[in-house]
Every structure is written in structure tokens, then in C-alpha cells.
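How it folds:
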Amino acid sequence: MTLFAAARRAAGPWALWIGCVGLAGGGLASGAARAQDGAAPPTARATAERPRAPRPPAAPRFEFDWTAPDELLPFLQRHIELERYRRLRSLDAGELNRLIAQAPANLRELLATQGHFSPQVSVSLRPAATAPSPEAADDDTDPAGPAGNTTALPSLGTVVVAVTPGPAATVRRVTVSWRGPVATDDGAAAQREAIAREAAALEGGRFTQAAWDGTKGAAVRALAAQRFPAARLSNSLADVDATAAAVDLYLELDSGEAARFGSVVVQGAERYDAATVQRLVALAGVTPGADYDLARLQQAQQRISETGQYDSAFVYVDAAGADGQLPVVVQLRESRRQKLVLGIGGSTDNGARLSLEHTHNRLPGIGWRAQSALRLERLDRLARTAWSAPVDDDGWRWITEGQLARQLTDNTTTDSQRLRAGRAQDGEAYDRSVYLQFDRARVTNPVLGRDETEAALTANMAWTRRRFDDPITPRRGHGLSVEAGLGTTLGSDRQPFARAQARWLGLWPLDREASARPRWGRLALRLEGGAVAARDGVRLPETQLFLTGGDNTVRGYGLREIGVPQADGSVAAGRTKAVISLEWQRPVGGEGGSGGNSGSGGPGRSATPWEHVVFIDGGAVADRARDLRPRWGVGTGVRYNSPVGPLQADLAYGLETRQWRLHLSVGFVF
């Protein structure tokens, strides 16, 4: 037993308490003495928490000297493995030589992703003028001195890279094979043909890994989108014939078991009727026993969202279904019953805009939805309310609308009233409506001494067909809208008349469908026409006639600036209208469209949402078709494809007015 242990046993615990108190007292006394000297006692925690200045970035340890084709150089510079080590502080000459020895293999792999399978590659090191000492190369201390100054590490030299890529391989053949029920299912024949046709679009083009990966992904998505939600990629192979600079591609898809829709379950319906949601889902084709179709689920979700009664709506299948029947779940988050929105905006056509909008999603007693708006602009005033009933089993709904408007055009003021009642149907292929409409318009022009009031009653039919690949930012497709009506003027001399107008828009991509980096964009052609058939001398409401010009019609001219010329230099609405517009829309700032990127394996830059447009617009209005004389506008502009639709700024020159005009527009409107 030691002397200390013996003393502790003899004294008992009291000795330990006395010792602790003594130590604490000594510490307090020492701290007080330091406080009297004006110095705070440093602690280990305070020392550990002392902020350190951020370490400055290291200078490059070596440089590159490249010899490579311009089209491949940016891609190689960005992805070469050596680039990761340029600013590594601890990199020494021995490690750099090891990395240089591995670089040719890395470059050959990169070139193979671009279809170059027989390249010539050389990588060597050109030493720096003054080689670093071993001590400096191995020193990993912080180069920042007390004042934060950076001491550059010595350069290890220049890495010399020479690349001759050789011929680019083309895709010789694409073979698609099938596993699972899709291989023998006659009902999936069209699906198999469409997937094989899309894959065959690669044939004859240059092979790139990005395009091949994109084709494989698209094939799996296309198979999983209909009937086979568990589809997957079973196998793929790229067989390279370096001698012939050709690649044979093989793709094997496993469909998994076919699936059908099961029962529909609606969750979250409290304020609004769940039966309407069930009806909208059924109208989209999502019914128990129907083949699984992702597009129908998305259409059902869109139909529910378009009612305006829900902040969010999600329609999906429950994978836990049995016997190939997948229950459909509709999750809803309801909107408030009423909403009031105050808006401030503007346009190049109409200047500043102040708007007030009120929505009542379920009117008491009738359950209809009402949308009312008040809009004040420099040239236009509008007060409008539109009511619509819930859809029935066939997708039709009752509609009614009332509107008061004032339009200013040069010296002419048009005050109009409109009442409309009828039915509308928003279908999968078409939108249709039939309605009765009352129009009354008063036109005044103090310069010409004009003060006329006319009214009419018409029975109308409207029909719209849209076939665009995207409803917000379309890249291809077409749309057609037609409206026709028969009516009579009201007043002492009632005369019959007919009115019709149509609008068509087509989009054509100029690049190959399989191109991973579209360069040429697309052409957009828009055609509009309208005509009123009535006896000479029949006076019609101004709102039944036509004017054109402005941001979304004929650029280079102001809003409603193209019409029938009047004696005071103003224009009046006419009985016939014709508009044509041709536009070239091309991506800028990158080699891709806004819908994705060129892939990590592609040499192109990332996709860009920016586009450059060049256009020519023409429009004419007259009382007789033979008197139509088009006014032309030409110009250029830029477009930003935002999530809410295109934001476009155009600078147009009116050939008749010989003036430049700026046009701003938001969103895709058809």
C-alpha cells in the first residue's frame, strides 16, 4: 500500500473535500489576480472556437497545352480526369506522372462516348523552367501567412495533350427485342412498333453515348406508360466495328405483367362534391377494368386542376393491387371557397393595367362556379362575369357570361355589352361549345360626327382541336380553332347575317427527332381569317366585325391599328380579315432545347431556355375580300421559356408606317 493510499484511508472522505475546496479557492484567487491585471483567462474552448481565415484557393499546379478539334475541345477539357487534380496542394511530380500515364485511356473512353473508337492520343509532361525542390513539393502547410497573403505553390510544368479523333462512327442498325407478355400480346402491337420506330431513328446518324442513353430511357418510359407499368431495361449492347466506323445497337425490354385500373378512391373532398371528381376521372378514361395508361392518369389530374377548386391534385395507382387491378387514388387539397386577386401589370399594346378578379368556387344554392373580373387599361376597360355548372356524365356543362367593355381606337370609342348562355365541353380530342349571344355596341367618333348604336342576336358554335407536344411550351404540333354563327340584327330593320372565323398554328422542328442537341429550332406558321356575310348596307355591331394588329397578331403595328381607313386617318372594323405569320425559333446560348440537356457524355453545352426568333407578319382588314391589302411587319426578338410559358420581347419594323415598335408578350396562347 502506498503512502498516499494509506493517508487517504486514515483521513477518510473529509480529506478529499478539504483538498477540493482548496484547489477551487486557489483557482478563484488566481483568476481574481488575473482580472486585476486586466487580462481575461484564456480557456481551451475559446481557443478552439477562434475563427480561422478561409484558406485561399491554390494556384494551378500545372497547365494544359491542347491540340484537338474545336468541336471536341470543350468537352475534353471539362471531363478529362486530370482536371480534378490541377489545384491539389499536395500533388507532387511523382503523382502527376502516374496520372499522366492513365490519361490516354481516360481520353479514349471520353472519345468513345462521341463515336470515335480509333483515336490517336498522346499525353506528356513538359517540365517547368524551375523544378520545385522535393521539400517544397511535399510541404502541405497552409500557404496563407499571418496577413492572409497567398504564397503560390511552384508549378510542376505543362501537360501536353494531342488528340486525333479519327472517323466518327455511325449507327448501322438498332435491334429491339422483348421479354414478357408484351412479346406476344396482340393488343401491344402498336406499342411495340412505335418503340421500335423511335429507336430506329438513330440509324444512319452519328453515334453518341448521350443519344443512345436517351433512346434507351425513352423506350422504357414508352413501354411503362401503357399497360406495363413495371417495364424495365433487361439488357443493352453497343457492338462496335472500329474498322467500318459503325455501331450495331441492341436493346432488350422486359414488360412485366400487364395491369388494369381498379376502383377509384377520392381523398380530401370536403368543400366540393366528390362525385364531380369521380366524373372527371371517368371522362379521362380512368375506369375500373381499363388498361393502365399513364397519359390518362395525367389527363385526369389536369381535368381536376382546371376546375380551379383545388390547390393540388394527384392521381396515381396503388402498386399493391391484386390480380393486375391497380386501385386509383385521387389526393386533393381544396382551394378556399372564395378568392380575391388584385393585379398590376402592363403591355406594350395597352400600357399599364390594373385588374381585380374575384372567384367563387361554389355559389350558394346552385353549386356553380363564378369568375368575375374588372380590368382597367390605357385603351380598354372591361367588366366581366362568367358562371359555369359542374360537368355532367358526358362532359358538358352549362355556361353563362355577361360583359361590359370600352375600347379606344384613335378617335373612335366603342362601348359594348354582351350576354352569352349555352353549353361547353372540354374533351380529350376537342373543345366544343354552343351558345346564344346578344351583342350591343355604340360607336362614337366626334371628328367624323359618328354616333351609332347597333345590336344583334346570334346562335354560335365554337370548336378547337389542339395537338401540341406540350401545353405550356410546345415544340411541335398543330392547333385549329373555328367559330361560326348565324344571327339577325335587332332594331326596326332586322337583317340576317352569318359570321365565321378560324385560326391555325403549326410547329415543325428542323432537327432530327433523335438529335440530343437541337440546333436549328423550329418553324411556326400562323394563319387567321374571318368574314361576315350580309347584304350591303346592313349595319352590324362593331364587336361582330374585325380589327387586327398588336403583340399577338401583326407585330410592327399597334393594337387594332389595322382596319378600314377613315377620312380622319383612323380605322374602323371591317367585314373580312386575313393574317399570316412565319417565325423561326432557334435556341441560343447552348446546343439544346429548354426541355433537357445534352447529357453528361455529349460535347455540347447544357440546354438553354433562351431562343432567338426571326419573323415576318402580315395582316389586312377590309369590307370586301378583294380589297384586302396586307400590311407587313418584320423583326427579331428573344424568348425565355419559363415554367409559366414563353416570355417574349420582339422588335418589329412596320413596312407601311416605317417605324420600329417593341412588343412584349407572356405565355403560349392559342
Remarks:
- The two ends are 100 Å apart (CA to CA).
- The first strand starts at residue 63 and ends at 67.
- The domain at 260-334 is CATH 3.10.20.310 (Ubiquitin-like (UB roll)).
- DSSP finds ten helices and 27 strands in the chain.
